[in-house]
Design goal:
alpha/beta; 314 residues; UDP-N-acetylmuramoyl-L-alanine:D-glutamate ligase
Length: 314
Amino acid sequence: MTDKMFDLITIGESLIEFSTNQKLKDAECLHKYYGGDSLVAAIAARRLGSSVGFITCLGNDAYKEYMLNSWESEGLNTEHVKIVDENNGIYMVSRTPGEEKEFIYYRKKIAPAKLSIDDIDEEYIKKAKIIYATGVSQSLSIASREAVKKAFTIAKENGVITAYDPNYSSLISTPEDAKEYFEEIIELSDILFMSSKYDTKSIFEISSLENIIKNVADRGVETIVIKSSNDKGYHLNSQRVSTFIPFYTDHVVDTTSSGDAFNGAFLHAIANSYTPAEAAKIASIDAGLQAQGIGAIKSIPNRDEVYNIYKSEE
């Protein structure tokens, strides 16, 4: 095992992505890439210059070498990517101008569902500044839920920051499941990301963001970021001090995984000693640039693009 220290280690699924800017029924060609919420966060942080590891199970199918080679060319540490005899999951996304986004998932009995506590190496977790996982990571299987909890427990015991996003989607889980995942991990979490459109409505029975923030802070979460499309920005609360960071831009093409890109950029900045407010500004730029392209990962910006804007705005 490497002796290298990591700014961030993420845990979760990887999927093959097929995307198009036509309706799926009309598209004759789909662009191949890869996605998965924890993987998006990992690559967003990596493209900004962070050292990043990724923990997952990868299927031994026709896409295995493509994904491994792609991640290694990005500079991700893949020593805890385990190859298993299952297929990789697939999702298709269409973003046609003026139309609703289309999503199709094929993620039943896929390789990442094999993730278990055996894949969580204590020494590897202790090498990170931040450990990150999502409700999607937990939703893969009972074993994956146990893996996430083990990683967060090790992290908390060793002074490693933990970050969590419920990332609720009705295509993946039920509100009842999302509440279970949340309750299982929230008191082990230092940083919480939520969406006011999906997460807060599904997990809490209260609608006031102020009350939700107080509820979560009272449970020991130090930094809370609630993304609000209605308010066009991010409600940040750190150490019970609130700040609002507006979206970088209203001009977006495809918001697929822009929230995940935000999370990765935010955690990159925290790991590199930026304040939470500074981290949110950097992450807002990153997510805004990412949303101006199609697909989850191929449109994630690099360090120069983001920091040139950040420095000019400062």
